[in-house]
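ERR on first pass: missing label on line 2. Operator R.T. fixed the label and resubmitted. Corrected input:
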Amino acid sequence: MSIQVVLCDGALAPAVGWGAEGAGAVVCFDGIVRPIEDGRRIAGLIYQTYDPMAELDLRRLAEEATRSFGLLGVTVEHSRGTVAAGECSFRLRIASAHRKEALAAMDWFIDRMKQDVPIWKRPAPAENHRGPIP
Amino acid sequence: MIHQVLIFGPYAEAVGEGRVDVTLLDDQTVTARVVMESLREQQPALRLLLAHAILAVNCRRVGDETLVNAGDELAIVGLVSGG
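pass 2 clean. output:
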């Protein structure tokens, strides 16, 4: 079993190859900042993290997911600071022996993260935008 | 005794700071409930938001009756929106 948690400034770099010994499935989810939030165009999102607790919580979630779903490996990366629309702010990779547990764990982890982990975001308004998107 | 409480996200936006002070009586047994009630009284800008808040002590969410000691790191979490 391997678990890695990373909080970093700005957008995440493209994913590089990763796996875990014995894995028959590696699932990677990239969370991309949408250009429109609540009907308004935005330049990006500004993330704020309570670093020590966010890291602990993400690690606890990864450990719980590993136990519950029988995973072989988990890596979590999350941005802090400004991430432009179209860029990646969150990446979760899960390795397991078979695809079903990896896919189920992916959904479970993201739901729990959004509910519990102390990370906040607010939109960075687009400079030249003057109204709602038609 | 004055405790500092870290705040983030909508809580920090409401008061324009990343931390607030909460003053507690010296002879008071300080629990998480006491901290939250005192915050509601002393920080009116946070009053509504605190309805959705959880107190974290040393990076762990705690229940109402958890004791808070001098030197503990206190933070308001809740209303999170990561991902």
